[in-house]
Amino acid sequence: SDWGGKGDWGGKGAWGAKGALGALGGWGGWGGSWSKGGKDKGGKSSWGGGWSVQKPWLKKGGGGTIPAMPANLQVDEGKRYMGTVQSYYKLQGYGFITLGTTGVVPGDKLFVHWSNIQSGDRFPSLVKDMEVEFCLKKEEKRGTMTVGAGDVSLPGGMPITVQDESDGKKTFVGGQHVRYSGSLKFFLPKRGYGYITMDDGLTLEEEVPKELRVELAEVNAGGKQPAAMKEVKVEFGIWKTQKGFFKAYNMTAPGGTPLPSEDQNGTA
Asked: Where is the domain boundary, 122, 142, 162?
């Protein structure tokens, strides 16, 4: 599926928008360095166009170097391991886990993508220093072998749920559980955002723009990658950022049911 969607919904670091993977602030594929200035050393590939790893890659920001894995590295993909979340970038949808057992992979560090997290949250995520359990996923990407974390859960196999805590820090218009109606003009998974036109006649306690931006983190597709959508009736909450911008919160289909996901081939 196309991971070109999870980014900084303000526009910087968006997967496939400004700051896209292969543009500003993104991965130029695994084969280069993660950077924010549009000087991607790994080429122009993106999650939307497939992963690539041609050489050791870096995470900008002090995370250290994680080398591409030797082609002959043997891993037991059925075994469960323990580890600690070293870092996780919610808006980008990825992070790094430090293995509790040393010597399993070079560097004792694994990449983790949001799609490999067991979670009931509408937007699966991890928290720094969280203890987690996982298996190893060995994959060949464009001729280079990579190993990442898969089936990530809490110790004991319990799903990870952190969204309630994150939602508790938001400032809502009317309250967290107040719902509004409107039409989704479009949503682009590769860009990681869309826009909603609110219905006429809504009563709001603040002056809110008629059109609201919705980011992939707030598109409720039941924890799956949302499909591309256009002109779809939706309901949602509204939250206000620290900079005073209004955005849609927990966008669903009318009645609170999940929106179409890519694996449903939903392209409304």
From this structure: 162
